[in-house]
Every structure is written in structure tokens, then in C-alpha cells.
Design goal:
single chain; 167 residues; alpha/beta; Rossmann fold; globular
């Protein structure tokens, strides 16, 4: 039996949405264990605290019934350093558009220079998931729009409640 293949799917997840869950589910077909790294990323001014985002990701991943194949952890700093820390050799990134690719292509090059042992794998968004972005979900919620098609029910309730608090 070979060495366990560990993947890392990093992101801010503010909030986690159906596109993220699609990438997580499909990633589990490629790796034995998937670490979901929830980035502190204070620079992005997240709507939810780190603890809240970790909790939401854990709750939604528990519904995937992946039997311990998913580990959700907060992190800060360089993704490649966190990959080393968790034993990941595969970095999973989701792509929705050409714009995503331009950014991710640059990051992949830099990460490969920093840690050539970590290979980046891109998964394109499934049909119907391409337009979903946390930023757009927050904007729709802020104006009282219906985010139900884009997020799980629990995330919808928490996001709508947070937007009411911010009024």
C-alpha cells in the first residue's frame, strides 16, 4: 500500500457556497484525505469571523459523509508552508473563469518555486456553479436577495442574519 495522498483546498470561505462544496466533493475522488484550509485573510475584511467560517465549513463537510477523509483547519501564512505542515502534496484550486485562471496561473508558478513538492491541480467549476462567488453572495444578501440557490440552508440563514446585524 502506497503513501496516503493528501490534498489541500485553501480559501477564505466567506461564506462557503455550493461551488466550494462541488470542488470539495470532486477533490475527494482524487485524494485519500482532503484538508480544507480556512484562511485568516483579514485583508479581505471577511463578514464572518475565522471561527464562524471554520464552523460553517465543518458543518457542511460533515454532510458529505466522507468518513474522516476531510479535515478542516484554520491557517495563516503561505499556503505551501501550510501544505508542508499538513503533509499535502496536492494543492486543489477551483476555476470559474479565465480571470480566475490568470490569477491562479501566477500563484501556481510562485508556489512551485517556493515548494516544488506541492503540485497544483485545477478543477473547473461544474455547470451551474460557474457564476457563484462568495463576494456576490454577500452582495445579494446585503440587499435582501435570495441566496438559497447558491448556498446550503444553514449558510443562507447565517448569512442573512449577519447582513441584518450589519444594517
Amino acid at each position: 500500500m502506497g503513501k496516503e495522498k493528501v490534498g489541500l483546498y485553501p480559501g477564505t470561505f466567506d461564506p462557503i457556497h455550493n461551488g466550494h462544496l462541488d470542488i470539495i466533493g470532486r477533490s475527494l475522488r482524487l485524494v485519500d484525505k482532503l484538508v480544507i484550509g480556512v484562511a485568516i485573510n483579514a485583508g479581505k475584511g471577511p463578514v464572518f469571523t475565522l471561527e464562524e467560517r471554520v464552523d460553517m465549513v465543518r458543518r457542511e463537510c460533515s454532510r458529505l459523509q466522507a468518513d474522516g477523509a476531510v479535515d478542516v483547519r484554520p491557517f495563516s501564512g503561505l499556503v505551501v508552508n501550510f501544505a508542508d505542515e499538513v503533509g499535502a502534496t496536492i494543492l486543489v484550486r477551483g476555476l470559474r473563469s479565465v480571470t480566475d485562471f490568470d490569477y491562479e496561473f501566477q500563484m501556481t508558478g510562485m508556489n512551485a518555486r517556493l515548494n516544488p513538492a506541492v503540485e497544483t491541480v485545477f478543477l473547473t467549476a461544474s455547470l451551474g456553479q460557474q457564476a457563484i462567488a462568495s463576494k456576490l453572495i454577500r452582495e445579494i444578501a446585503m440587499f435582501g436577495g435570495d441566496i438559497a440557490p447558491f448556498v446550503p440552508a444553514d449558510v443562507k440563514e447565517r448569512t442573512m442574519a449577519r447582513m441584518k446585524e450589519r444594517e
